Automatic annotation (TrEMBL):
Residues 247-285 are annotated as: Disordered. InterPro entries: ARM-type_fold, DNA_alkylation. PANTHER family: ARMADILLO-TYPE FOLD, DNA ALKYLATION REPAIR PROTEIN. Residues 262-285 have a biased composition (Acidic residues). This is DNA alkylation repair protein. It comes from the Bacteria. Gene3D superfamilies: 1.25.10.90. It comes from Yinghuangia soli.
Amino acid sequence: MTSTAAHEPADLPVRIAAAIDAALTAHADPVRAEGAKRYLRSELAHYGVAVPDVRVAVRAQRKAHPALPHDGIVAVARALWVEPVHERRLAACLWLEAYADRLAPADTALLAELIGESGTWALVDVLAGSVAGRLLLRHPEAEPVYRAWAAQDEMWLRRSGVLAFLLPVRSAATYPQWFPVLGEVADPLLTDPRFFVRKAIGWVFREASKHHPEDVVDWMRPRLDRVSGLTLREALKRVPEEDKAPLLRAFRGAAGPADPDGNGDGDGDGDGDGDGDGDNSTDEE
């Protein structure tokens, strides 16, 4: 049944959230739940539902309610989020992603609120890299908000302020507008010692290098004394070897900051950049 803005029952958002939750619990797997909780170092309860199945549950309700108005969209997300269950909160993130074309700049306050309560890249990266990024593509006036996020000391909000530019710099069409902004946002963050900030900076520059590897090399070259090895290696992953190798050699000869995790690149920590499990929506073409 398709809902309309004019004839919605008042409890429709709660009913939609309940339908999504029912679909999630139908796929619950206690063994997977234990492993996911351990992997994410999560304090939330876990159903043990695979990300693709969470997406299917969200898409089914999105398809059933194409005309849901803005307030209803937000109410569903909040109804899902209120329970401290990882898959419900992931569904809330994916729900906002599914209706990203209905969101407005004022909804950045909601995104910041949820990011602040996420506590894990597995939720943050959908809200920031996907939802906030899509919002910026439609509403460039959200830019100052994301700059302000990146300037905050709180780690997840800072990471989000960087990841919000991932989709804009990945697109060849919008790259010229947003790559200079990314540079301004990222430059003062290069010496942040935290893994999740350093990896986010490198990830977004890596996406920019898909179409403009030379610009990424040129941006990194004068900053080799401040950029971490983690950020640099991540940023250069897709850069041609003949351009990457000289920069890495120069970095090794410079007094760049050490990686905070002490293992060189930290790639085993799992940070949602899409390389490992392919579940992160921001890595879709």
